[in-house]
């Protein structure tokens, strides 16, 4: 019986390929046009020639980006799973270690983090096969306290969920509109129990908040500190106490690695590697579920769904991870900034899934632990000289050799093991080892997950993508321009940096075991800032040329003008063909397109520029922006109404405003000339491009003004 099914999207694939063929002819024609005219220019030292060269460069940027992008459109697939067909008994299922990451209680409210922890404990999976770890990179004592409280609450919450088959197992979500379907009357007992559990939940919240506010327990980041590892709930002890299956809860562990101010900590990558080692000698499950702290489990069956891939003998030998999409519970209908990043989760990931697998997205994925240590098909190559790779811990090295992949469940977690775990979580442990290089998550890129996933694909591992109707996980997206832009800048800077490093897809990638089309997809992501260069050039050269009276497009009666029109239409259609079938409308497409244009000349562009500057002066940013998960009510309101909120965008406003004004002035001057001279044929191309930008800007301004009027 099949566990999963993979379907190539049709007729989409055929249409995409047909379009690919036609569009490439148009692109070739344009390249020919630009090059041939460049050669015939009489004097190459004129402004005319200069403008011509720049606009050509802009076009080349678009064309190269388009070419890379075709990898993501070559073979899009959709997958289904059939968890009921898993023939394993519960006792035979492989164990899973859940890793939840948090780094700053001010930006990541502790009660919300605990909600994620509780939702993970409540996964529908045998409790003795599940362990939940919180990696607290803030080392905040209040988080530890909250874990203990969360654990007591979980002892009531889990039995309640199991008894009534509740799906929304994140308590906060359950008591919000998200849990409406689960709160419908089941029977009288249910109502009473729900009321009681609600009180307990409020009590839990209060306990945590009060402990923090009263100052009894420190609720801040502790930047310089020794490691702390606490087993909050030990499976073994738990088992002895109760014989009722319904009452059992999984193992729960709090980990705060050592951090020293003078030591590099490598952000989440460093935190994850420490946790890999610590969990290795405690529960050592062969599979990991990785969750950002805001990303709670919204469907308890996700673990079994993921196992439909990991247990499939055809896929499993080379399968490194199963990725679920990031779905956000706070995305509004108009989603003016496109914070849901539709293109990634609805188009690119499906496209890559049909080649070698989706990008590792940082959260919501089930990873094979060994994939981070070796390559597929090599049997335990790392055991040759383990100390050189993994460091000196005997216990950890022994954990790699565990016969069945994980340490026996009956084992008691002794003080010895905790002490060893602390050594494994110390700053010095990684010195002189391969952690962050060959082993574990890579430190060579700030987007540790995407980049480590890329390296996994380079080693020949594959991945799969599952996009179920009910979101398996739900997270929180930034809902203002500042928050979302900072995130974009951070991502683009990290990706561009990877694209400029020695690991770039064009040299390193092409020589590795990655599939060629997959490599194109990574090139698309890592050189995405090409697009913003194309944008910036197109948003400036045509209008500057209008001001200076220079012609950069063919005359209207020139057949080449038609080629440009076709190229433009073909590009827009390609763009629409992605977003409209995904349940969108022309309006939704326009919102998304507008957001991309605005970000393209601001945050995306600055991210790329930042990476290039850092490459030249040879530094790598030591600071990393942490997305805010404590969403401001005011900001949320504006966003939900579909109104732009430009507050705090700072630097980003500079290119945005400059280019808007430039186009406005260029457009007016150009239009004026047309009226005076009654000749439009040589400037129409520029006029259209400029007016397009002006149109975008005006539509944004209307939004902002109408909002100011409303409020
Ligand atoms: O020094 C750090 C910084 C962050 N984190 C955690 O990493 C997660 C992701 O950080 P966030 O600021 O929310 O990043 P996003 O921009 O939302 O996330 C994307 O980009 C990150 C890389 O910048 C990836 O790590 C994420 O998994 C990916 O979802 C959060 O749970 C943090 O608590 C740490 O553990 N240590
Ligand atoms: Mn996040």
From TrEMBL:
UniProt binding sites for UDP-alpha-D-glucose: 107-108, 137
Pfam families hit by this protein: Cellulose_synt
SUPFAM superfamilies for the chain: Nucleotide-diphospho-sugar transferases
Positions of Mn(2+) binding: 268, 292
Biological processes, Gene Ontology terms: cell wall organization; cellulose biosynthetic process
Positions in coiled-coil regions: 187-214
Species: Anisodus acutangulus
Taxonomic path: Eukaryota, Viridiplantae, Streptophyta, Embryophyta, Tracheophyta
GO MF terms, alphabetically ordered: cellulose synthase (UDP-forming) activity
Location of this chain's protein in the cell: Endomembrane system
Name of this protein: Cellulose synthase-like protein G2
Membrane topology (UniProt): Multi-pass membrane protein
Parts of the chain that traverse the membrane: 15-33, 45-68, 524-549, 556-573, 648-671, 683-708
Alphabetized InterPro entries for the sequence: Cellulose_synth, Nucleotide-diphossugar_trans
Keyword entries, A-Z: Cell wall biogenesis/degradation, Coiled coil, Glycosyltransferase, Membrane, Transferase, Transmembrane, Transmembrane helix
Primary site of residence: membrane
GO CC entries: endomembrane system; membrane
């Amino acid at each position: 019986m099949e566990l999963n099914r993979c379907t190539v999207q049709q007729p989409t694939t055929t249409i995409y390929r047909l379009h690919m063929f036609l569009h490439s002819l148009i692109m070739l024609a344009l390249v020919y046009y630009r090059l041939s005219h460049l050669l015939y220019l009489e004097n190459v030292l004129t402004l005319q020639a200069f403008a011509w060269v720049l606009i050509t460069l802009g076009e080349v940027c678009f064309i190269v980006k388009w070419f890379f992008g075709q990898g993501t459109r070559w073979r899009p697939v959709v997958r289904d799973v059939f968890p009921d067909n898993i023939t394993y008994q519960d006792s035979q299922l492989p164990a899973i270690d859940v890793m939840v990451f948090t780094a700053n209680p001010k930006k990541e409210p502790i009660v919300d983090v605990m909600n994620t922890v509780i939702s993970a404990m409540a996964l529908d999976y045998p409790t003795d096969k599940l362990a939940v770890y919180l990696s607290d990179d803030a080392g905040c004592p209040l988080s530890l306290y909250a874990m203990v409280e969360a654990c007591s609450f979980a002892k009531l919450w889990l039995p309640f969920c199991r008894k009534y088959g509740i799906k929304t197992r994140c308590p906060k979500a359950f008591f919000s509109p998200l849990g409406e379907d689960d709160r419908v009357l089941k029977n009288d007992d249910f109502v009473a129990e729900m009321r009681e559990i609600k009180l307990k939940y409020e009590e839990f919240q209060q306990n945590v908040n009060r402990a923090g506010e009263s100052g009894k327990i420190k609720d801040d980041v502790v930047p310089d500190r020794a490691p702390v590892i606490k087993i909050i709930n030990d499976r073994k002890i738990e088992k002895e106490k109760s014989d009722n299956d319904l009452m059992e809860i999984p193992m729960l562990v709090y980990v705060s690695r050592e951090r020293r101010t003078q030591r590099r900590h490598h952000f989440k990558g460093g935190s994850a590697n420490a946790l890999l080692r610590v969990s290795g000698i405690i529960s050592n499950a062969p599979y990991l579920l990785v969750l950002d702290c805001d990303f709670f489990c919204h469907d308890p069956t996700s673990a079994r769904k993921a196992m439909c891939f990991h247990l499939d003998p055809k896929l499993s030998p080379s399968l490194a991870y199963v990725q679920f999409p990031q779905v956000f519970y706070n995305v509004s209908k108009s989603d003016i900034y496109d914070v849901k990043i539709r293109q990634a989760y609805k188009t690119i990931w499906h496209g890559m899934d049909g080649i070698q697998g989706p990008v590792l997205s940082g959260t919501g994925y089930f990873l094979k632990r060994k994939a981070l240590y070796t390559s597929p098909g090599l049997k335990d190559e790392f055991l040759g000289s383990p100390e050189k790779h993994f460091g000196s811990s005997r216990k950890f090295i022994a954990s790699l050799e565990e016969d069945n992949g994980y340490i026996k469940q009956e084992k008691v977690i002794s003080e010895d093991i905790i002490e060893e775990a602390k050594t494994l979580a110390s700053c010095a442990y990684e010195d002189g080892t391969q952690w962050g290089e060959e082993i574990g998550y890579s430190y060579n890129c700030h987007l540790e997950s995407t980049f480590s996933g890329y390296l996994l694909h380079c080693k020949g591992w594959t991945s799969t993508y599952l996009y179920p109707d009910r979101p398996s996980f739900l997270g929180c997206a930034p809902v203002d321009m500042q928050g979302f832009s900072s995130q974009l800048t951070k991502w683009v800077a990290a990706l561009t940096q990877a694209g400029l490093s020695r690991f770039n897809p064009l040299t390193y990638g092409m020589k590795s075991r990655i599939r060629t089309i997959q490599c194109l997809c990574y090139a698309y992501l890592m050189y995405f800032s090409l697009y913003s260069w194309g944008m910036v050039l197109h948003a400036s050269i045509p209008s500057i040329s209008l001001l200076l009276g220079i012609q950069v497009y063919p005359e209207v009666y020139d057949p080449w003008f038609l080629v440009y029109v076709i190229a433009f239409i073909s590009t827009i259609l390609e763009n629409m063909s992605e977003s409209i079938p995904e349940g969108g409308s022309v309006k939704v497409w326009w919102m998304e397109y507008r957001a991309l244009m605005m970000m393209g000349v601001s945050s995306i562009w600055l991210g790329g520029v930042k990476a290039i500057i850092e490459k030249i002066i040879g530094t790598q940013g030591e600071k990393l922006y942490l997305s805010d998960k404590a969403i401001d009510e005011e900001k949320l309101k504006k966003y939900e109404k579909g109104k732009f909120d430009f507050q705090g965008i700072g630097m980003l406003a500079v290119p945005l405003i400059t280019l808007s004004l430039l186009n406005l002035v260029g457009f007016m001057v150009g239009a004026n000339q047309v009226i005076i001279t009654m000749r439009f044929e040589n400037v129409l191309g520029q006029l259209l491009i400029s007016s397009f930008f002006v149109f975008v800007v005006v539509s944004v301004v209307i939004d902002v003004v109408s909002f100011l009027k409303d409020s």
